[in-house]
Specification:
The structure is a single chain. With 342 residues, this protein is α+β, with helices and mostly antiparallel strands. The chain has four domains: 84 residues, LON domain-like (Archaeosine Trna-guanine Transglycosylase, Chain: A, domain 4, Roll); 88 residues, Methane Monooxygenase Hydroxylase, Chain G, domain 1 (Up-down Bundle), CATH 1.20.58.1480; 51 residues; 58 residues, P-loop containing nucleotide triphosphate hydrolases (Rossmann fold), CATH 3.40.50.300. 55% of the residues lie in helices and 13% in strands. The protein is built from twelve helices and four strands, in the order H-E-E-E-E-H-H-H-H-H-H-H-H-H-H-H. The chain has a four-stranded antiparallel β-sheet with strand order 1-2-3-4. Helix 2 packs antiparallel against helix 3, helix 4 runs parallel beside helix 6 and helix 8 packs antiparallel against helix 9. The termini are far apart.
Length: 342
């Protein structure tokens, strides 16, 4: 407790009957709450122990006794004084039906505690010794991860049956969410364990082969790829991309599917003849003979190819136009490309 009004109220209560009314404020953002900023229903409690700390705050231990509703509240001598009425619990169910409701609620709470690691298992032991339904409901609500407005809603319920059924509905919803989280964590953990196991076994196999002398003369795979990238004669952009992919590959498990994709991509980049050029032969007569020998028909296409070669022969440095062969499968695009290569 740190507010001046609250500390003054505690001091006044300690000098009187040690009875204090505890109410929650509606919004935690309000530093100095007024009458309209707090809930009407709260808990009447007795102060068991009060300890003043060196920083000016007060640590207080209280024991709740009953639900109470504020009838009148006013400020007096720097703290709030309230007139409240006691709210008695309503138990409208027969004893046998109430026992079944309590047993069902306890079973759901047991499942909630096992799924939620934030609740200590010792709570289940204390619940087993509770015979009163109202105390059972309040104890379960106190240990559940509920928002302030949800806890206030439970506090304002006078009907024990309504309170237990409301908590059971909340627990069923939370149990479904917690089970889903558990399944997701299990799948992620299983995948991580599989990847780690594969990486560990792979590294162990390398270490064994090295001990046996099998890897002494074998070059490092990553060093070999780096050397190939260096000697490939790539453009600046292509080399930057290849080196980035190689660094990514070093961090991957060798057995993962993505590592295979990255490795194939690097191999494809390295295998491209970046600096190799073939000498262009501009012999129109020979080109026409090759085209006629390899293909029957396709007169317009062959004529366009020969026209392109003729222009290239005259200009020497051809800029701009690029021949593009378009058509459905099987019409001869690939075989025309092979003829041009000849």
């Amino acid at each position: 407790v740190g507010r001046d009004k609250s500390i003054k109220a505690l001091d006044a209560t300690m000098q009187d009957n040690k009875q204090i009314l505890l109410v929650a404020q509606k919004s935690p953002d309000v530093d100095d709450p007024g009458v309209e900023d707090v809930y009407e229903v709260g808990t009447m409690a007795s102060i068991l122990q009060l300890l003043k700390l060196p920083d000016g705050t007060v640590k207080v231990l209280v024991e709740g006794s009953s639900r109470s509703r504020i009838r009148k509240m006013q400020e007096k001598d720097g703290y709030y004084v309230a007139e409240a009425i006691r709210l008695d619990d309503e138990e409208e169910l027969p004893e046998q039906e109430m026992d079944v409701l309590m047993r069902t609620a306890t079973g759901l709470f047991d499942q909630y505690v096992k799924l939620n690691k934030k609740v200590p298992p010792e709570v289940l032991t204390s619940l087993a010794s509770i015979d009163e339904p109202t105390r059972l409901a309040d104890t379960m609500a106190a240990h559940m991860s509920l928002k302030l407005n949800e806890k206030q809603q439970v506090l304002e319920m006078q009907s024990v049956r309504e309170r237990l059924e409301h908590l059971m509905a909340l627990m069923e919803g939370e149990n479904d969410v917690l089970q889903m989280e558990k399944r997701i964590r299990g799948r992620v953990k299983k995948q991580m364990e599989k990847n780690q196991r594969e990486y560990y076994l792979n590294e162990q196999m390398k270490a064994i082969q090295k001990e046996l002398g099998e890897l002494d003369d074998v070059p490092n795979e990553f060093e070999e790829l780096a050397e190939k990238i260096k000697k490939a004669g790539m453009s600046k952009e292509a080399r930057t991309k290849a080196e980035a992919e190689l660094n990514k590959l070093k961090l991957m498990s060798p057995m993962s599917a993505e590592a295979t994709v990255v490795r194939n991509y690097i191999d494809a980049l390295v295998s491209v003849p970046w600096k190799k050029r073939s000498r262009v032969r501009n012999d129109i007569a020979k080109a026409e003979a090759v085209l006629e020998a390899d293909h029957y028909g396709l007169e317009k296409v062959k004529e366009r190819i020969l026209e392109y070669l003729a222009v290239q022969q005259r200009v020497r440095k051809l800029k701009g136009p690029i021949l593009c062969l378009v058509g459905p499968p099987g019409v001869g695009k690939t075989s025309l490309g092979q003829s041009i290569a000849r």
